Structure formats: C-alpha cells, structure tokens
Amino acid sequence: MRRLALFAVLAAVAIAAAFWLTRPKPIPVMLKEVGSGKVEATLANTRAGTVEACQRTKLSTIIGGRIEVLAVKEGDRVKKGQLLLKLWNDDQQANAALAQAQVALAVRRSDEACIAAVNAEREAKRQADLKARGFVSASREEAARTDAEVRRASCNSSKADIAQAEARLKATRVEQGRVALYAPFDGTVAKIVGELGEYSTPSPPGVPTPPAIDLIDDSCLYVKAPMDEVDAPKIAPGLPVRITLDALPGKVLPGKVRRVAPYVSAVEKQARTVDVEVDFDEAQGGKLLVGYSADVEIVLAGRADVLRIPTSAIQEGGKVLVYADGKLEERTVKTGLANWEYTEVTDGLKAGERIVTSLERAGVKAGVRVAPDEKSPAR
C-alpha cells in the first residue's frame, strides 16, 4: 500500500510538472495606460494636396509666329504691363504705317474739302445778297447755293473718311497686340516654352499645346487638397487647419479653410472628392515653392482634459481589451470625439487602467494569458 501511494504521488508530481512545462507561455502585448488629455475631431485629405499660387496664368499668343523678341528668362520677376514675348510682325507694322499714311492723307483731303465748302458758302451768301438787290438772277443764286451744299457734304464725307482711316489704323494696332505678351500682374516667370527664332503655337483650351510663358504670383500662396465627398458636409469656411509639407518635415503650419468647392470631382479609378482651399495664417510668399505637396488636417471640434485612449486600440463594436491580473478582459466603451490618434472615452474605462494596443499580434483575444512587452512603455 505504501508503495502504491508513493507511485501515485510521484505520478501526480510528474503530471503537474509536465503541465507546467508545456502550458502556453503568456503572449507579450503592448499596453497603454488610460489617461486624460486633449481630443479633437479632425478630417484629413484623401490624397496629397498642392501648394498653389493665388494668381497663376499660362500665356500664349493669339496667333502663331516666329519669336522675334524674348524679353525675359525663367526665374525673372516682372511687373504688370511688362513686355514678355513678341512674334515677328513686320507685315503688321507695314500695314500700320500704311494706315497711318492714309489717316494723314484723309486729314489733308478733309482740310481741302472743308476750305472749299467755306468759300462756296460765302459765295452763295454773296449771290443771295445780289439777288435781293436785283443784280443776279434766281438761277444764278440757286446754283451758288447748290454748289455750297455739295461742297459742305463733301467736307462732311471727308471727315467720315478720316474716322474710317483712324479705325483702320486702330485695327492694325489690335492685330499687333495679337503677337505680343505682356504681364497681367506682378510675378515670376516659372517656365518658357520656345527660344528666340523658334515658332510659337497658340494654346487654345482643350488642346494639349504647352503655353509660351507660365507666370505665377508667389507672393500669395494657399493649399488645395481633395477631401472625401462623405466629409464635405462637415467642412465650412473658417475652420482651423494644420498644414504639413513633405519639404518641411516636423513643421506644422496653421491655416483656415477658405473655400469648399461647390461640386464633387469624379476621376476615373479614384474616389469621388471635394476640393478644399486652405489659407495660411501667416504669409508664406517667398518661403515655399508652388507645387509642393501638402497634407491638411481640418479641426472640426476639440475638448481638453478628457479621458482618452489610442484610436488603434478600439475594436469593432467599440470593444477594447483591458489587462487585469495577467489576463485580457473584453470591455465595451462609449466614445465621444475621435481622430486617427486619440478617441474620447465617456464610459467603460477608468483612468489608470491599461489596455492592449498591439491588437495585430497573433493570439491576442479576451481570456488569454499575456505579459506586458517590456520593450514598450505602459504610458
């Protein structure tokens, strides 16, 4: 009997040792202590936005021709009204000279016709006086009066000829304006397509022809970014924005929503979006380059000093895994404001409790034995 009892004890110890040695090891998990802080409801752009100039124009001549004058180069700063480019137009200049000569000729002919009209009117008046005194016949007086009227009409016609010649001269000057480009505003020449002596082609809308000169006003900049169409009703002008740029890592620039596009952009194979324009709170003219990629984070609302947890710790259905006595406990929480980083907790958790943030690790679920990952702090 004693031997049987000893064998039974030894067997029980062996089974217990085997169970202890073969039991599942605790899963290392990353924990985060529930604490308080600021939580904001924010929206972010779906694709990268772009830094744009408040004024930008791509200029092309109305007609094509050979470049005769290229008054600027890329990077030059220009003033409003400054000549940028001019095409060969000797034919137009010849037409303008001809029109100018025709104006001068019309003026001289008008002077001649009007002087003759004045003399004829004086003669008609003398003939009328002589007729009244009985020295000339009525037919003579009538002929003088008719001649005066004809010459006055000729004078008036010659003045109309002057107006016609001046209109022709003005038309030639308008034609000359079709071959020249002038700066519509102060700015910087971003790009020039064409060299001196090359043929420049007009760039009408809808035709993929590059413009002759790309002019930008980089003294005023803003960001244009696409937002998901679902978020569009929440966005309004004046909302605060945080702007980040790949070119300035770690720097956040404040801004405000200037405009929300009144339509949805539908691009093939892309989500439907609404363009939002954002102004910088501080002028960035000369500090940033037009075309920089930018991300915007629109702040819809915010609360300070509220209970919060990482948004990544929340599972479907508003559930979280709470660490307690070496095991995980599933708990449902009620949430308030949220963004991609933090979510406000209104019920279901207390300050100081620790929750799992490494939900992607295999085997992490309610009821399993876990151990805090020493490589990651609890706070």
Spatial order of the strands in the main sheet?
Answer: 4-11-14-13-12-15
**What structural category arises from helix and sheet content?**
alpha+beta
Mean pLDDT: 87
Cα separation of the termini: 59 Å
Q: What is the H-and-E element order?
A: HEEEEEEEHHEEEEEEEEEEEEEE
In DSSP terms (H or I, runs of 4 or more residues), the helix count works out at 3
The CATH topology label of the largest domain is Elongation Factor Tu (Ef-tu), domain 3
Number of strands: 21
Q: What is the domain tally? A: 4
**Helix proportion:** 25-40%
Q: Which band does the percent of strand residues land in?
A: 35-45%
CATH uppermost class of the largest domain: Mainly Beta
Mind describing the biggest β-sheet? 6 strands, antiparallel, barrel
CATH architecture of the largest domain: Beta Barrel
Shape: rod-shaped
